[in-house]
Amino acid sequence: MFVSDTDNILFLDTLFMYARRFDVEIHAYVLMGNHFHVLLKTREANLCRFMHDMLTTFVQRYNELHDRVGHVFQGRYKAVVVDQQAYGMELLRYIHLNPARSKRLGNASLLQRLRVLRDYQWSSYRAYAGLERCPWPVHTAVLLAQFGTTLTEQHARCARFIKEGLLVENEPFKQLLAKSILGSDTFVDAIKRRVCEGRHDQAAAPARREVTACDLPRVVAAVCEEFYTRPDTIITAHPKHAWRDARRVLLWAAARYATGKFTLEEIGRTFGGVSSTAVGHARASVDHAITHGLPVSAHALAVARRLSPHEDPSNADDEWNEMYQRLAAFYAQYHHVHIVRGSIPDTRLAAWVERQRLVRKGLAANAQPLTDAQIEMLDKLGFVW
Fold it and tell me: What is the C-alpha separation between 108 and 111, in angstroms, rounded?
């Protein structure tokens, strides 16, 4: 990918241009032949837009430069939320040691690897080691401050700390939670609360589900507590009549609150060897009960409060219930829900539909996205996104 100095300069120019545009701080970076690492700080919740715009522009310019078309990167970038106090220095070392640990060096000696580290010009190491000013406005002060009081001391101790990484194993990402959080227990708990309470970026939905997902034993315990029963009465595929609602709520809760860690197939296999389709039916059935206020909904909502106290699955945002009822009535009358703003008398419904489409496309960041269950209900109506 980065086959020449021109490619490296193009990428860094683009990275720092968009960093300035999106008010993003670049604290460290390294460009390798087929990948890159960047340690950055966003002042606003705009990482996805920053990366999308930056990478899109780079790819366009790269393709023009090389007279080619198509993708440059294999997949979506990987982003990790980092506790700077606990892991900032380790990540600084990990990033800068990439060139010195390259497989291309083979059996190179420690001295040779140190020379590569010192001379490599496509990382921010030389700025941190005080060897030269970085041609791009990298923010070194925050992490350097952890290495001493004077700038000379900071440069020397930082360089020594990074070099020592060649003598010890340095793989901070082994400590990742849900492939997306690196930090102390306190930091992880704080991030989980923000994920539940804050604004939602739909592009990060898979990682968010994995971070907030419950373990299956916790789901079982919550359902048993609500229905005053033992696990063996509801885990079986064929529960007694008295426990059928509890069994249905169990599958619903697992599908709703554990799918970040388990697939529907794994949930079905754990709870009596039923199919993923059966789990999906149970989830849809209980979602329907919640929407229409049927008796089992009270139990489901009580279980939900135990598993996710920050979320109200009844969408007390009663707007959802009202809009869904209006959509269902529209479908019953016209046999479709292809609604275009200005084409129907119900202007409020039309505006709501338009907003959901924008949210789905990531163009309305301040709006609350629909849950997977709600999207599934709209899909069953034939909703046109």
Answer: 8
